[in-house]
Structure prediction request, 160 residues.
Amino acid sequence: MAVRKNAKKTTKKSDAFKLSDIKLDSKTKKLSSKALARTSTKVLAFALATLFVGLLLGAGAWWIVCRNDCFALLGQEEVTLTVDEAYADEGVSIVAFGRDETASVFVETNLKKDAHGNLFSDEVGKFYIIYKSSCFKYGKLFAIQKVRLVSVVEASEGGE
Prediction:
């Protein structure tokens, strides 16, 4: 059996100590407030200065790593095609956390694809190409997507 100093009863080492059973009495509260009051203002100032410097260094590192990040649409945002005209999509460029993440792009569209991978439509209307990324920054953290609008019109007659 273990005997605690200044204890009224003895306990076995195997007795479990539960955090939910802890209740701070007024004596403990007074002791903790006295300990905080005895803490030097120099120590508190040093702790705050260290925290501030750490935040500045972290923000600086973030800026250095991420200053050239982008999710950019290559080419025009709006494209006009004639019926059955093939369109070679230019895609997007993605740089996240200083790395090229262009390979993480997936494309969603309501246009049709030919055998060469070009997009086309056999009917008149407005169509879209949506670019999304599966990378952490632009896919999960900010969930950004880019959209290209494709207008398909009738072929003009008479070579106009």
In short: The beta strands are 70-73, 78-82, 92-96, 99-100, 105-109, 112-113, 119-120, 125-133, 145-153.
